[in-house]
Every structure is written in C-alpha cells, then in structure tokens.
C-alpha cells in the first residue's frame, strides 16, 4: 500500500490508523514524499512542516500503541491550512511581504479543534495576498499552478489548499471564503469545497479580510471528507463574537441516494451572459441527474443578483481597509529600514509590505468610507446586501436548496486576467451573493469542459449545512465525477 497511501481519503486513513493497519508516521511520510515529488510543478505550499508533522505522528502512534482509544474523527489524517489561519509556532504570513517571518504565539480555534481531533498539520498553503484575488497570482511569493493544466491558474484565493488536494498532496485542507475563495478554486481544480453558514465556524485566529463575510471551510476529494472536517471545526466559540454558538447536527451518509421530496430552485440569473457553453452544458446535465434522483426542480428568479458584485466590491474593501490598518510596522511583521519620523515609517512600511491588489482594495475601501461618499457607496451597498438576503429568504420559502454553476468559466491561463481587475472580479459572480447573505454553499465536481473541471454549486438555508451536504452526497454518489484525478503531466489532462 506504501505507494498509494497519499491517495486515500481522510475517512479511510482514519479507519486504517485506528485499526492499527497504518501508522501515523507511515501516513505522514507518504504524504511528505508526494509533496516532495509534485511541489516543484504545483507550488501549493508556502511552508511544509515536516518535522512538526512527524513529531506529532510519532506521538499519535505511541498513544495508540499504549492502548489509548480516545481518538477524534481526524486521528492520523494529514491536513494543510491556508496561510491566513494562525498556527502557534508556525509562520503565518498570508502570502504577504508584510507578514513574512511572523510566527503566531497562538492557534486559531479551528486549529485547536483539528489538533484535538487528531489531525496532523502538514503545512501552510499559498494564497492570494491577504485572500484578495481569484487566481492565486497575487501571492507575494510564487504562483500556484492548476494540477489539471500547469499553464493555468487553480483559482483563488485558497489556491494552494485546493491545488494541494487536487494534486493528492493532502486528502483535506482548510480554506477561507469571503466571496468564493473556497468554492471557486475547488471548482476549478475538480475537488469539493464548502463555505459554511456565517457564524458556524469560529473566525478567532483567522487573519481578517472582511469580517462580516469571512468564513473558514473544508476542501477535500469527496463530500464525506468535507463533512467530517466541517463537523470538527464548526461549533460554539466565545472568542468570536460573531459565532452563532451552534453545533451542527451529525451528518450521516448511507443507503440509497435519493432526493425525493427535495425542492431545488434554479435561479436563471446565474446562467446569463458570460457563462461558457461547456460549463452550462455540465450544469444542465447535473440538474437532470438531480431530477433523476427524485428532486422537484423548478426555475426561479433572483433579480438582485446583478447588483451583488458591486455591493461586495464596496463592502469587502471597506472592511479590509479597516482590518488592514493594524499592519503599520509597529506591531506585526515588516518595518521599513529607514524612515523620517512616525508618519513616514507607517507610509513606507505599508508601501513596501503590501502588493498592488491589497493597495487597490485599501484605497477603494477608504474612499467608500470617507465622509461625503459613505452614504453614496457604503450605505447603498449595505442596502443592496439586505435586498440580496431578503430575496434568498423568499426563495427558500419555496426551495430547500438552489443550484447554480460555481463559476461561469473554467480555469484560465496564468497571467490572462492579471491586468484586468474587473474581469478577475467577474469570476466570483456566482459565489459572492452567498457571502452577502451569510448562507452555506458547497461546490462539487460535475465533469469537464475541454479537459478542465467544472463545479456545481448548491446553496442552502442558514444553518442547513448538513442537509446541503446530504444533497451533495446523493449527487456525488450517482455521478462519480469526484473520482477523476489529474496526471500532472506538463499538458495536464485526465488520467485514464
Ligand atoms: N475573489 C474574491 C476577492 O478577491 C473573494 C476572495 C475571498 O473569498 N477571500 O475578494
């Protein structure tokens, strides 16, 4: 089995570890050797914590050998974390020069929970700088490549987490999703990505981008693994005042997949101009398969969808401009070498530390919040946000979930949209409304268009995350698109 350990699911690895068939050290070594093999091509990681992981694996093995049976659902499972999630003693730099070398003195709540469940942290993944971007290319350090075609982007901002799973470097990873950053890269790399309901998962220790939108969530090869990680990380946390204090009900999968009695809405605005033919065809097929599973499918309309992107690009930068004010050269990370007084120190530090996309967001956000423009932009955007939420709530009186593409396009070529921020922003048109409304959503693989993965998005009601996962599981069970793996040859393509 040695050569394929890294390919196994989190559920399987956990079972094999608990049964004594595989040691945590064997699992960790297999994953580390896969990382060594493919990282030069993929570039999913910023930091690989080999020593830390092996040390942890040895301790798990010793506990198991000593007869300990109190292991959590991720015992023996390697996991990678997006680099905006604080890890005690492990550098966390958000792919920014501003935080290069910064080592947090504490763990984020999600990391505490992962450790308590027996997971093995393998490393920190590359991302768009401070989670701002849709392609992974705004990382200050290197680009991450799409394992299906190394000339293409993996999506973003959780670029490294999605690519690491797709390239079989780790079975599962955590990302964060402010406007689509888990679902969009999951779709573009052919894996499953979930954004939980806002408030289900603690944000404590997660470097804030836009606090009213950010949510941590899992990425994996299948719905079962994603559900397993979700159940570990979700739940009450008094250190995050926006945490809802709720524990999700346990998800159980099994039996014959059926969607009898499930009502699904298809919002027509998500199929408008800009959607590629190949993507549209895959989503239409998926809708037919959902119907075959017994779901009642009906078209619906969410007219405010067209304003969601504009509202997001006021609200997210506004919150970012406030959140990023703390990076001033005094408290964290980078400080300019030479400055003439305090003001000069602030301004040089920030000019040197932040990349162009982060600066663009800070400028837009500061402008939108400035007196004289606040009502015209920020207040208006908040009003639009309320309308988007109300429209979803009305739709959920008739439907249990909504079905849309995750992205209107498949993975584009590296560099293709870098000089055109607007076209980059449009890649998130299907995912952003969900964050504005705080809803849960999951992206599952639904096939290929021109050899590139396409993602199906399922959007659920507030705190109906487990029901959403059940729907996604039924779909996955009858389609098996999630079993395809890239061959990582320079030209990419599907494995026979
Ligand atoms: N791509 C979007 C942005 O750049 C969303 C990012 C995210 O979800 N973190 O803001």
Distance between the terminal alpha carbons, to the nearest Å? 21 Å
Tell me, briefly, the overall form: globular
| Total beta strand runs | 11
CATH superfamily membership of the domain at 2-263: Amidase signature (AS) domain
SSE order, one letter for each helix or strand: HHEHEHEHEHEEHEHEHHHHEHHEEH
Cα gyration radius (Å): 21 Å
**CATH topology name of the domain at 2-263:** Amidase signature (AS) enzymes
Q: Low-confidence spans: pLDDT under 50, at least 5 residues?
A: 490-496
Q: Estimate the mean pLDDT confidence.
A: 96
Q: What compounds sit in this structure?
A: glutamine
Q: How much helix is in the residues?
A: 25-40%
The biggest beta sheet reads: 11 strands, mixed
Oligomeric state: single chain
Structural class determined from secondary elements: alpha/beta
What does the secondary structure layout of this molecule look like, with pairings?
Blueprint: H1 10-18, H2 24-42, E1 45-48, H3 50-65, E2 78-82, H4 109-116, E3 120-125, H5 159-166, E4 172-177, H6 183-189, E5 192-195, E6 215-220, H7 223-233, E7 263-267, H8 277-292, E8 296-300, H9 305-323, H10 342-353, H11 356-369, H12 374-398, E9 401-405, H13 421-426, H14 432-437, E10 441-449, E11 452-460, H15 465-479
Parallel strand pairs: 2-3, 2-4, 7-8, 7-9
Antiparallel strand pairs: 1-3, 4-6, 5-6, 5-10, 9-11, 10-11
Helix pairs in contact: 2-3, 9-11, 9-12
Structure notes:
By secondary structure, the protein is an alpha/beta fold. The protein has a domain at 2-263: Amidase signature (AS) domain (Amidase signature (AS) enzymes), CATH 3.90.1300. Helix content is 39%, strand content 13%. The chain has 15 helices and eleven strands. It has an eleven-stranded mixed sheet with strand order 1-3-2-4-6-5-10-11-9-7-8, sandwiched between helices. The chain is globular and about 65 Å long. Bound molecules: glutamine (GLN). Glutamine is lined by residues 131-134, 157, 176-181, 209, 316, 428.
